[in-house]
Design brief:
Belongs to the TMEM134/TMEM230 family. This protein is mostly helical. It is 59% helix and 0% strand.
Amino acid sequence: MAYVDHAFSITDEDIMIESSYTVNNRPPVKEIALAVALLVFGTLGIVSGFFMAYNRVGGDRGHGIFFIVLGCLLFIPGFYYTRIAYYAYKGYKGFSFSNIPPV
């Protein structure tokens, strides 16, 4: 008979003896609030940047371009995590609140 080392084997009994695994899928309120704030301020930055660049607020278009770039830097992660939170809330397959990193 061959020697079988059972020290590293996993059976159904081992899983049953361990503590039960529960999925905590509560919405992370702080993280979602941050994502929505990034989305809103990013949108405001882009819109005000276009307005400032078009009307040459500050004497040239540089101020407007700065606000557009800053708005894009805020908008992209805000949109990404707000979309994940929305899809997780609606229950779409593959989306979970655990995909949102903690603050």
